[in-house]
Amino acid sequence: MTQELTKESVSARTIAIIGGGVVGAATALSLSTKGYQVTLFEPDEIGAGTSSGNAGGIVTGAVLPTATPGVLRAMPSYIFDPNGAAVLRLSYVLKILPWLIRFIASARPKRVASIAAALHPLVSRAMQAHVALADISNARHLIKPVGWLKVFASDAGFADTALERELMTRHGVNFSVLSAKEIEQLEPKLDKGAYKHGLFQPESGFVDHPKALTQAYFEGAVRHGARHVQAKVLQVMPQQDGSIAISTTQSKHQFDSVVIAAGAWSKQFVTQVGDRVCLDTERGYHVSFSSGQEPLLNRPVCFPERSCVLSPMHDGISMVSGDELAGLAAPADFRRIRGVMPFARKALPGLVNDKVQREWMGYRPSTPDSLPVIGRSPRCSNVFYAFGHGHLGLTLSAITAQLISSIVSGEEVPFDMTPYRVDRF
Q: What does the alpha-carbon distance between residue 397 and residue 372 come to, in Å, rounded to a whole number?
């Protein structure tokens, strides 16, 4: 069947956004408030994908990249230890090899330092960017200024944070090193006496219902004229007249510009435009425990020694654990996160009688250098990229939206965008 091509407008203000996660929704809000006619393409419900299953942190001090010298030393366990911090499926090794080679290169000390310097201007503005968008979309109540807490049961585990602490200090991150007593004051229902050391970032925020925040951002965009086309995008096609054609499973549309914010699925559209990107997915697993009679936690608590986070979400305690390198097509394997559940019940004794109400897996869109791809395509001036946020999708969504809307409208951005270019690969 021949698809009819629909021209959305004759003005230079029509813009498509591919992807209805938190980055896409935030970008829709930021652009629509500047008068752009926004059409967001997402085949599912807004915010129902990977954005709905994170730990809820807006981590303003997250300057440590994933690839570090310490991670490199632990890489053999990723293949041979099914309960390790990350798992690489042997069947996926050849496909992810180019990504892994760049990941290893990113772990050099000088490169780690430069990546941290590039992360800092993003994460340090993350909270204020969310507050700005939340005020526009009447969603301020969804963002709680309760900080981000990491706890350690052993001296060795805390000692492993030396590089992180050094980088946070270098970039002026507000953080405190906590004693066992101070940890107990913040989170009295953790296993008493189990955690000797803590790291606390008081300026970080928490969203206990990320899907609701994502939907609030888009609903705010709708009030400024945005619309949602519930269809899967198949192709992005720059046209000779300078416009962009979008082909979906249902129809074709034509726009002045497009923002690709499709998370782990962005690579195919980058290739269609003529650019190249090194992007893969760190699959993350999620278990939700039913809510009990009283609150068990006041904020997300990260347990780096066990590679998991417990968060007090709107409907119970959520546990997010681990990374799995296996691509987009492999079936989910919940055995590893189920193996962490006894630890969660020990760390937070109030969970003992709470049942598991949901298991879930999401796809973190990850670059080997832990930096997102934000900015204009070098091949096509009216294609813009906003993806590759890895573990920081919620954290960086609002600042990414503000940056994209500034770039699209020709406004000055507050810092150098070179580290986030798509052609850095």
A: 10
